Amino acid sequence: MSSDFQRQLPTGRNIQQDGWLYKVHLDPMLLTLVCLVLGFGLMVLYSAAGDQAGLFDAQVRRVLAAMAVLVIAAQLPPGVYLRWAPFVYVLGLLLLVLVLLVGIKVKGSQRWLEIPGLLRFQPSELMKIAVPMALAWYLQQRVLPPSPKHVFYSLVIIALPAVAIAAQPDLGTSILVAGAGLAVLLLAGLSWRYLVYASVMIAAAAPLLWQFALQGYQRQRIITLFDPDRDPLGAGWNIMQSTTAIGSGGVFGKGLLQGTQSHLDFLPEARTDFIIAVVGEELGLVGVIFLLLLYLCIIARGLVLAVSAQSTFARLFAGALTLTFFIYLFVNIAMVSGLLPVVGVPLPLVSYGGTSIITLMASFGIIMSMRTHKAW
Amino acid sequence: MAVALAIKDPNREKALIQRRAISFFMLTVLCVGVLVARFVQLQIFDHESYQSRSDKNRIQVQPLAPPRGLIFDTNGVLLADNRPSSALGIVVERVDEIDVVIAQLRDVIALSDDQVERFREAQKRTRRPGAAVIIADNLSDRDIAALAVNRHRISGVEVITQLQRYYPEGAIAAHAVGSVRRMTERDLQEQDKAVYRASQFIGKRGVEAYYEQVLRGQPGFQRVETDAHGRIRKVIDIEPPTLGQNLTLYLDARLQQAAVEALGARRGAIVALDPKTGGVLALVSKPSYDPNQFIIGMSDSEFRKLSESVYVPLFNRATNGQYAPGSIFKPIVGLAGIASGAMQWDTEIDDRGSFRLPGGEREYRDWSWTIDNAGGQGLVDLRRAIYRSSNVYFYDVASRLDVGYLSELAADFGLGKNLAVDISEASRGLVPDAEWKLGTKGEKWYQGDSVNMGIGQGDLLVTPLQVATYAAMLANRGKIVRPQMAQVRDRDRGNEIYPTQSSQFARLTHDDWVNTIAAMEDVVHLGGQGFRGNGTAWAYIGQDISYRMAGKSGTAQVVEIRQGEEYNEEELSEFRRKHAWFMAFAPVDDPQIAIAVLVENGGGGSSVAAPVARKVLDSYLDSP
User: Fold this and answer.
1) What is the pLDDT of residues A104-142, one digit of tens each?
2) C-beta atoms of B53 and A248 within 8 A
3) B504 and B408 in contact (C-beta within 8 Å)?
4) CATH of the domain at B432
5) Which residue among A160, A190, A213 closes a domain?
6) Quick check: A299 and B28 CB within 8 A?
7) Average per-residue pLDDT for chain A
8) Which residue of A has its CA nearest to B232?
9) Shortest CB distance from B32 goes to which of A296, A307, A319?
């Protein structure tokens, strides 16, 4: 235990000083930040829901349920996660295969499994946690940084679910899952050079990927990114309307409930994937920067908790989950503001919808668990 | 080294992860910095252009159609009204799959293939972006309700309610009032687009066409906030349209109705004028059509039935039907004879039923001619020649008359030209003269041509409107009137005043007019004179009449009858039978109404057309 490190990070306080919340394994600072974002999100959603007040109530219920999931996830000690990691991963992989075989198609993608009358869920969502967990489990047994052989096996562990999810097709989740896995590898000391090599290889293979790997609509989305005016009523519509919403918001925004782009239905998916455009339109640059700062604080706190955790597994796992959260928000905001092609990734903790919030809150529970439980 | 690496060192690993976490955090800050930069670009540097783009999105300027001026008859009866009508439009830009939307609409309301076809045509035409393309007109309340219920299911469609022309009198006044028609691509090119941007209809016939600029008004505008589906959420500001001016006609709806009934099922035309003003009191052309059909829309087969009928219901016989006048032309011939000095009122000739030009072969017959040569009117002067309608007398006059006098006098009565103030499309008819014949036929004028013209045959052509005007001028004892539909003061119109300098009327004395009218009074009222002594129309209309009427009948040949043949009506096909004419005015002392009646292929003027005229005059003069 390096006491030097604790002095370097002023936020890293002594476990004993953190009061009763710590006894139930919750980190007050991270919890506060998460609640601030959730509150901010509900406020924006209240506006975006417009006359459909039922949407807002439904989201409040989901947030409360997700909060419960966070608390439960925080109670499980890291050892439980470590022991279950390989099984959860294999189970997740089997479920993904099952999805491809007997999944339910919604809007052209086969993402859901259903036990009729009982529940309906996306196994890919589970993989956002299961992949970093499995990799952390795999790498904590190895010497770090991992040798090329272990890097290779790690890549296999990442690739299997990522490909299965991409085949649904669900490129957004696939990117998040692969990103979560790569985060573990990089935290574990994988040389940055590999990242450079990989980037060069992907760039070199881009024409081939363009031809064979991408679906027609995905190609269209990339074309649109560079030239949204090309098909303003078709593929370019979403991105033109979202940048218009953001740009017209200006510094201080049009005011909550005053956004014309969102309230007059020009902005598509205003409550779900494109909700940051509502923030930009109604609350302006000020609102966007406020949210980004909150996000940055969550990431900082998450990383602090991760590095001060008790074991390599815990550090890798918690760190990767924090970084997944970052990938989430970056991909979403970059996409809505026209920096990245459109992929289906919601804005974490803010977008309407239950699945992603529950997964994210489980992640935060796990991050807290990794730090608050005594050595095991 | 390899050995050293193989040993797990928790502290080293922790330090490694720490370093990496710090690197990652810096990367995170960098990425968030990129995002912030992007938002700064969008929200500060490009703010204005996105602001205007956002406004353009939601704010639309919509033209507001001006309500068209109403048209009333002289007693305030509504002849052209505006009624709200709902149309279904599709905002093509807001629809992904037109076919899907049409299929969805077909589940809700009835759409014919015809309508869908027309919609597809309209879709190709240029229009304002975001403007709805009409697919169905005149939605019923049921349709509107059904669409409202299903509105959430079908995006990109809207119900547009606009005022639409409605003609309460329908077919009765169709040719008198005229009608509006749906604007075509060509109309839009020819007209001021700014004025018609909100209009779907334009006056195409009759009064509606002539007074288009008065009736149409000026469009207004409203700025509205619309949502992405093109639905109006709120009106930001509004500049109301300028209403079209109302128009009052001289037309008397009751008289119009009476005229339609008097003509009954026969084909023909009636024009009644107020001789003092020239105001058109009634204008009937039968068969007619219901102008509302053109507004509501009709199927191709319905339209074909109207446009291809051999009875041409869309054709306005009253203003554009050109017929030989026959004997109703005779008073003009008589007056031309007097004016030219060719004869006097008391000049008598012996009418033996036929006439030959000196040294001529051809025999010109009287209407009373029989094959055994027992016809003729005996000794006739001009008055008797008029009330007995002696052909031979007018053959003789015409043969001794320079055709120039005749055609000039005919022109003074408005024949061969369009005297109407506000019926621009009225036909001019034809008054032939030597110059015309040389120019058109390349032949010189023969005396025989004059002889034919003497009884209103030959190349002479007149319209019922012209005949009514001619009757009105007789009623006025030579005072010129110009027919007009609307009660609008002349200075508002700025038309040129009819030139009267070269008028042949100047050569006529008051007595000439009085004598002519007296002869025409005899046509109706002179009875009990025995064989070949009564006015030609007396037996049909003159026996129980309560007011004094002056009239003249005419029976115009449609086909020429060859020498030595007898006209046999039974043998002729429907369209080759003679046209029946009657012109009249009444009361003689203080003329209130002048009328022309034409019954196409009706037969005798006195027997067929005169009773029709009598009914119309009765209805006008007897009404309280």
Assistant:
1) 887 777 888 887 776 778 888 899 999 999 999 999 988
2) yes
3) yes
4) 3.40.710.10
5) A213
6) yes
7) 87
8) A264
9) A296
Other C-beta atoms within 10 Å of A125: how many? 22
Q: Is residue B319 part of a domain?
A: yes
Q: Same domain, yes or no, for B387 and B533?
A: yes
Place of tokens 């003069």: B621
* ipTM (interface predicted TM): 0.92
Residues A196 and A342 in one domain: no
Domain interval for residue A301? 22-75+217-376
Kindly state whether residues A222 and A367 are assigned to the same domain.
yes
Nearest C-alpha neighbor of B333 from the set B281, B269, B272, B397:
B397
Residues B190, B319 within the same domain: no
Alpha-carbon span A113 to A96, nearest angstrom: 9
Determine the 3-state secondary structure of B281 from DSSP.
strand
Burial A213-229 (b: 16+ CB within 10 A, else e): ebeeebebbeebbeebe
B327 in catalytic set = yes
Residue A209 at interface with chain B, using a CB cutoff of 8 Å: no
List the one residue out of A201, A168, A200 whose CA is nearest residue A99: A168
A233 and A374 housed in the same domain: yes
Nearest to A244 among B17, B28, B57 (CB): B57
From the list B327, B399, B553, B619, the catalytic residue is: B327
Which chain B positions have a beta carbon within 8 Å of A300's beta carbon? 25
B199 shares a domain with B295: no
| The domain boundary residue, chosen from B217, B248, B279 | B248
B366, B377 Cβ separation under 8 angstroms: yes
pTM: 0.70
Using the Cα atoms of residue B461, residue B465, residue B468 and residue B469 in order, give the sign of their dihedral.
Answer: negative
Pick from B282, B333, B386, B207: which is nearest to B597 by CA? B282
B568 found inside a domain = yes
pLDDT (tens digit per residue) in B419-453: 998 998 999 999 998 899 999 989 999 888 999 99
Structural domain boundaries, residue B91: 61-248
Task: Looking at the structure, tell me whether residues A92 and A236 fall in a common domain.
Answer: no
Rounded alpha-carbon distances, angstroms, from residue B214 to A114, B221, B242: 71, 20, 11
